[in-house]
Amino acid sequence: MSEHVTLGNISVAAIRDYLFAKRIDKGDSLVLNPADYSHILDEIRESGEPIDIPLNVLGVLLVKDPGTDIPAGKVQIVKNEQL
Question: Fewest 10 Å CB contacts: which of 4, 18, 65, 68?
Fold first, then answer.
């Protein structure tokens, strides 16, 4: 299983920066804590931008953790795998 990576304050900008810095590829996925996922949705709603489902940033799918495996402020990277 992939390790959890700390991003700190989860935001669209923080996710974009992380994707560029770590060269996360289009087609990969980031699994987020349910509260962080909701925060991202709220941030997009408040910006007035349309929300595309499935939610993605720069072609990287953002997935809400169905359980409680991912701690708040961290993400799990899933490389080109089916979830």
Answer: 68
